[in-house]
Design brief:
Layout: E1 4-8, E2 15-19, E3 30-35, E4 38-46, H1 50-55, E5 64-67, H2 70-97, E6 102-108, E7 114-120, H3 128-138, E8 141-146, H4 149-156, H5 167-170, H6 180-185, H7 192-195, H8 210-217, E9 226-228, E10 233-240, E11 245-249, E12 255-259
Parallel strand pairs: 7-8
Antiparallel strand pairs: 1-2, 1-4, 3-4, 3-5, 6-7, 9-10, 10-11, 11-12
Length: 265
């Protein structure tokens, strides 16, 4: 088993392990690798290391074919032009056929022998006639792939309400489950428009601090519980996990805020 290197084919995509053989590769190097669908163009995102070698030592890995050359970048440009042409032609054909589907991306393999059309739809779509017309037009293998709205956001990219690039398209390799409970634990507004991303689903970033809030919550008394400090006794009405503060309501209907360390256990 040779040295193992991590290759990423898309920004924010999954990192795949390849055998780099005799090549000496650095972070950011662009290479041509062997894949199940033929040659592929990728970027080095993890250099050979002992941990990666041990983790995949029993796997038969595909090899790095060569470092990318000038003609490879020319091929990428040709592929981009082909993808744009295929997208325009497919959109027109979808409209002519009256299909209820939303085409949002087209990807060509590195050798341009296959075109993959990504679309969203409310239900199943009979695209057999569409495929026939695409094959007749481009004379390559055609694959139609229906994906969910979150995958569409990941592939198309954009800016979130925070003003930064979508997490899913910039660095997230996979989608983790997101629940409304996470928003409740973090004390966020449960207004769907405020906790939903551009895709209309709950924001992925709710998962980033969920574990931290769960650990903090375990140290706090529950809302509604009667607590005591040296000076006060009252019912917990609000919790501020980050500042380690608790708001309690006294018998005379007044509220005071105390630190977590001030409670008498």
């Amino acid at each position: 088993m040779g040295k193992i290197v991590g290759i990423r084919f898309k920004t924010g995509g999954k990192i795949y392990d390849f055998d780099c053989g005799a090549f000496v590769l650095q972070m950011g190097d662009q290479v041509i690798v062997e894949t199940e669908k033929g040659l592929g163009f990728g970027t080095v995102t993890r250099i050979p290391g002992e941990d990666a070698d041990q983790a995949t030592s029993n796997k038969a890995l595909k090899k790095v074919f060569r470092k990318a050359a000038a003609e490879d970048f020319e091929q990428l440009q040709k592929n981009l032009e082909l993808e744009n042409q295929a997208h325009a032609f497919c959109c027109k054909t979808i409209k002519d056929l009256g299909l209820q589907m939303n085409l949002f991306s087209v990807e060509a393999t590195f050798d341009a022998s296959r075109l993959t059309f990504f679309f969203t739809a409310d239900g199943r779509v009979d695209f057999r006639q569409l495929v026939k017309l695409l094959v007749k037009q481009f004379h390559v293998r055609i694959e139609m792939r229906q994906v969910g709205i979150r995958n569409q956001a990941k592939m198309c990219g954009g800016l979130g309400r925070c003003g930064r690039e979508f997490c899913c398209s910039s660095f997230m390799e996979k989608f983790d489950p997101v629940s409304i409970r996470m928003a409740k634990e973090q004390g966020l507004s449960l207004n769907p428009t405020k906790i939903s991303g551009q895709c209309g689903r709950l924001m992925c970033c709710l998962t980033f601090e969920s574990e931290v809030y769960q650990d903090l919550k375990a140290k706090f008394p529950a809302v509604g519980k009667i607590v005591k400090t040296k000076e006060h006794t009252g019912k917990v009405v609000r919790l501020n996990y980050l500042r380690q503060r608790i708001a309690i309501r006294l018998e005379e209907d007044q509220e005071v805020e105390v630190g977590l360390d001030e409670l008498i256990k």
